[in-house]
Specification:
The protein is built from two helices and four strands, in the order ααββββ. The protein has 71 residues and is an alpha+beta fold. β2 and β3 form a beta hairpin. The radius of gyration is 19 Å and the shape is extended.
C-alpha cells in the first residue's frame, strides 16, 4: 500500500515538472529571426525513414558556428 502511494506521488512529480529543454532561446523562432540569432540554426523540414513529416524549425546549435572565410 505504501509503495503504491509513493509510486503515485513520484509519477505526479515527473508529470507536473516542466521540461528544462523547452527554455532554448531558439525555440519557436521563424526562419529570419532564427538566422539573425547567434547560436541558432534553421533546419528544413523532412520526412523520416518511417514517413513521419518533421516541420522546418529553429534549434540551438550543438557546435559553435564556423567563421566565414576571408576573401
Amino acid at each position: 500500500m505504501i509503495k503504491a502511494v509513493i509510486a503515485g506521488l513520484t509519477l505526479a512529480v515527473f508529470v507536473a515538472a516542466p521540461a528544462q529543454a523547452a527554455d532554448s532561446p531558439c525555440r519557436g523562432l521563424e526562419n529570419a529571426a532564427c538566422l539573425k540569432l547567434s547560436g541558432c540554426a534553421w533546419r528544413n523540414g523532412y520526412k523520416t525513414k518511417k514517413g513521419v513529416a518533421v516541420r522546418a524549425h529553429c534549434r540551438k546549435q550543438s557546435t559553435p558556428p564556423k567563421p566565414a572565410p576571408k576573401a
